[in-house]
Amino acid sequence: MASATADPIGESSLPIRKRPKLVQWALIAVLGLVVAAGAFSVVNNENFGWPIVFEYFTSPRILSGLVRTLHLTALSMAIGIVLGVILALMHMSRNRFVQSIAWAYIWFFRGTPVFVQLLFWGSISALYPKLILGLPFGGPAWLEMSANDLITPYIAAVLGLGLNEAAYMAEIVRAGIKSVDRGQSEAATALGMPDGLTTRRVVLPQAMRVIIPPTGNQLIGMLKTSSLVAVLAYPELLYSAQLIYAVNYQTIPLLITASLWYLLITSVLSVGQYYLERHFGRSEARSSLEAR
Amino acid sequence: MREKTTEPLVRIRGVHKSFGSLEVLKGIDLDVDQGEVCVLLGRSGSGKSTLLRCINHLEGLNDGEIHVGGERIGYERRRDHLLPMTSRQAARQRQNIGMVFQRFNLFAHRTVLENVMEAPIYVAKRPRKEVKREALELLERVGLADKPAAYPAMLSGGQQQRVAIARALAMHPALMLFDEPTSALDPELVGEVLTVIQDLARSGMTMIVVTHEISFAREVADTAVFMDGGLVVEKGPPSEILSDPSDPRTRTFLSRVLKETA
């Protein structure tokens, strides 16, 4: 079979190169052109009002709105996570009654739009003008408050976002708990651990690996969903922007200002999520290290 | 014959257990003395593992009773009936009974040392310093003194099972239950685990072992129990049961198992 074009083995050792990715580079070039053209038009279109965008980007009203948005997001998420864990454990309880309470909660809060729930909390005083702590069916009252005093826009916002989030978190936590091998809780039980300790020390820590990534998504979602609170006239980031453009009519620049802040914060959160996932995946990482 | 001075550590009477319409245990009677090594043999599906899981109340009973150390397991006596214990009461009883599983079930998120220390610290509430010293001794005893900081996923099956044994021993159990401790292991790793169990037997630990290792049963067990169809078919010293079984079902089982291992 010997010929002039034969490729004999072992005569000289040739270096191995990468095959050139011509198609990929061509696509990058085309996409680059499109992006550049788009950017050119965005920058040069005066209707975007870039000077106004940056003028307001660090204005005190936008910044205090941003702080309120972060505060609202953190608090609602905290309520959502704590209540979500409780609901998930209730949903998986052996007690049918406890189970159905969790089921009904999730059914209701997941089945209605969060926007509507926020409106309801905001107008609770129309349903119950007075909130009374006492015995039902007209018994003695120990504490009586006007609903409007107690449920301020802030409280309505936190309740609306937090209680809704709990329903979603419950499902995430439940999926996480289910992902833990049954042998783990069985081994803990066999060692004499009571159920609560087994859940706390053995099951939940291992469920974290499955719970963390979607919770990161929920947090990012919550940051943006919190803008719905504008409807309660609570001056978080979006409503702060709206209040400004209601006066100076610079609607689009101020919406861009708010959007840029949302984009910036979600980017930071994504980075945080990456490190958190790495941290909670560590026993897996160690095992793959060993496998090498 | 050994002289019986005290009453048996484990007493099982008329135990019935069903899963739905499937009756897995159909009336088991069995005594295990203090210090006795009892091996449960039988085909898969004969109810061995279920019986083992009833002894520490991982499974409840449909009928019958189990006593360990003179204490009724899993149920409280009322005047004319029994009530299931609360999960907290059952948990307290399990502290006295160690269990080793076929699939090890080490806590995957904790190191070897943490696995062994977990129950003595958080269940028995003993001081951490003392628990740690003893845990290291236990790891030494199962030949893993060099692996305290390893995570379970980094260990071989044989090493994991030895950690699981140390973890169970850390609670100072009066009784050890082994549920097919070598069935999930590669053949070359079976020996190291059996050696540890054998040492434990020599130290006088009362043990009930579900296994398919006939030679292990012959060497280590005081009593061999052969189960079939949810009943104890035959019981006696392994030399008799394993060499000269009287029941035809035992004979078929033994010839098949011995053929497989040969």
Structure description:
The complex is a heterodimer of chains A (292) and B (262). With 292 residues, chain A is mainly α. Chain A has a single domain (52-131, 141-281), classed as MetI-like (MetI-like fold), CATH 1.10.3720.10. Chain A is 74% helix and 4% strand. Chain A has 13 helices and 2 strands. Chain A has helices at 22-44, 50-57, 60-91, 96-111, 114-122, 124-127, 147-150, 153-179, 182-190, 195-225, 237-248, 251-280, 282-291, and strands at 130-134, 141-146. Chain A has a two-stranded antiparallel ribbon. In chain A, strand 1 and strand 2 form a beta hairpin. In chain A, helix 3 runs antiparallel to helix 11 and helix 4 (96-111) packs across helix 8 (153-179). The two termini of chain A are 42 Å apart. Residues 287-292 of chain A have low confidence and may be disordered. Chain B has 262 residues and is an alpha/beta fold. Chain B has a domain at 107-172. A 6-stranded mixed beta sheet of chain B has the order 8-9-10-3-11-12, sandwiched between helices. In chain B, strands 2-1-4-5 form a 4-stranded antiparallel beta sheet, with helices on one face. In chain B, strand 6 (75-77) and strand 7 form a beta hairpin. The longest helix of chain B has 16 residues, at 187-202. The model of chain B has no long low-confidence stretch (mean pLDDT 93). Chain A binds chain B through residues 181, 183-184, 186-195, 197, 201-202, 205-206, 283-284, 286-287, 290, and chain B through 56, 58, 87-88, 91-99, 101, 103, 105-109, 118-119, 122-124, 151, 153-154, 164, 167-168, 171.
